[in-house]
Every structure is written in structure tokens, then in C-alpha cells.
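QUALITY CONTROL LOG
STEP: pairwise intake check
CHECKER ROLE: data steward
CRITERIA: each record must contain a sequence immediately followed by its C-alpha cells, with no blank fields

ENTRY 1 OF 2
RESULT FIELD BELOW
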Amino acid sequence: MPRRAAGFKRPLTKGNAKAQDALGYMYYNGEGVPLDYTEAAHWYRQGAEQGDTLAEQGLAYMYVKGQGVEQDDTQAVAWYQKAAEQGDPVAQTSLGYMYAYGSHSR
């Protein structure tokens, strides 16, 4: 694991959702690690399952785009909904867009 990502290893083993989201972001964007959508989805899911809104947003977006996961608007809406219910304005906007435009939101 590259040095920048290695700093997240200890918190990840302790279930730190923020670190999991950060690692998902790094893999999604290829920052400090090779770009890898499958790894990004894995780490976003880890954080999302603990209620981290940024991880929920990241995972939802990956479902919208079909990056690292099979494209699935139902899953995208479900993850955006979880983040939106926690008051996340980006997720609320994305959710509204999906309801307004359905699968055309891609």
C-alpha cells in the first residue's frame, strides 16, 4: 500500500468511518494510490455502513455511474436517502434530482 494510504491502515482496522471514506475517495480519484473503482466502492461501503454521509454519497454516486459496482438506481437512491436523512445537503440535492429525472440522472 502506498505511503499516503498506509496512514489510514490502523484507523481502518478499528472501523473508523472517516478513514474508510477517505480511502474510498483516494481510490476513486487515484490520489496516492492507483485509481481503482472496485476498491473505492469497497471502502465507501465500509464507511457508509457505519453512517458516514460522505461515504454514503460516494457509494450512491458509484451506483449512479456504475463505477466499481453494477449500475443500480435503486441502490443509489437508498444510499442518497440515508445521507439526506442525516441532513446532508449534497445528498438531498442528488436525491431530488434522481426523483425528478429517474435514470436520466446519469
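ENTRY 2 OF 2
RESULT FIELD BELOW
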Amino acid sequence: MMEATLIIKLPECWISSITEEGFTTKVLELMPDNVEGGRGLVLLSPPMQRSIEEIKEALKKDPSVKDVEIAKVAQNLYLASVILKRCLLCRAILGNDIFLREGRGIGLGVLEWDLLAVKEGSLLKLIQTLQNFGCEVKIKRVKGVESRESLTQKQLEVLRYAYFRGYFDFPKRIKISDIAKKFDLSISTVSEILRRGQKKILDEYFEKEKGRF
């Protein structure tokens, strides 16, 4: 596995409309929703006090934003769930062995993304796909992640399907029985695959924090 941080300048970027207005942004989740679109979960902090409706309007200035739901989570801090008509980054990760960890808007259509690539070829394929979409991509950081045991192909397939179909959403958008049917497996087998697969991913993610607890 490989950890990487990419600086990506997209020809169209739904975060730009608010970062250019001084918002601080932290993208917690981004996933494909269909062939073209996607869904995002982002923490927002406006440069000055604004109402939820004003923040919605700021996000909807970008034509790729279809719908927005916003909740206030702290003083001058908001959590926005965004449905996108178009999402180049979502399209780029579709079919790649890539997990997006966290993204930050840094202005002028530029995003900084931390990601986890299951294979070295996955990262190269992602960069090439983004460039084919007209994006400018720079590698800020990349390093290998040592692991005692990697995800099996079957675990990866089941995990990706469960993730993109909304099994880990709240409320869940797909049942474990549906995943079992898709892969012709028993429910108990799928449950064990999901548990083991999640543990391996979490082991990789929190490797640097071992010993703190």
C-alpha cells in the first residue's frame, strides 16, 4: 500500500466557489454516486458569521452542485452534505484501488488530497486519469506503507461495493444480505470479510499512532 498527497487543479471544482470567498474547508468524504456525479461531506468555516441559507447559496454558485444539506456543529463551523451533478475526482477513483482520506480546498480551483493506494499502479493510474480529464496534478508526498498482511482481492471487492453502495452510511443504503447476494456468499461470510477488511484498513490508517493509547 502507498500513502500519497496530491495537489490537484481541476477545470471545474465545486469547492472553489467558497474557498475563493474565504471559507476554510475540509472534505471528510467523497464518493461516486453515478457515472458522472458524486456525494461529498465537508466541514466549512466561513470567514464571518453567515446563516445556513447564505452558505447554501455560496455552495450552489457552482453549477455542478445539485443539492446541499447543512447542519451547524459548533460556533462558526458547519457540516455540509453535497450532492454533485458532476465530479471529476469521483469519476477518476471509480474502478481504481484508491481510498480518499481527506481533502482541503486551497483556492483557485486547487485541492490537496490525502489518499491511500492499494497498489503503486493504482496511484499512477489515478494521476493519468485525472490528467486525461484536464486536471493538473502534482505529487506533494508519497511513501510506502508496511503491512503484515494486505487486503485480499475478494475483501477489496466486497469492501468497495459495500462502501460505494452506502453500507457504511447512516442510515444504511444497502443491507448486508444484498451484498451477500451480489457476491454469492453467505451473510456470515460477508460480515467476516467486512470486519477483517475494515480492521486492515484501520491498522494502516492508524499505524503512526500505535503506542499512544
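INTAKE CHECK: passed for both entries
DESCRIPTIVE NOTE, ENTRY 2: The CA atoms of residues 158 and 166 lie 12 Å apart.
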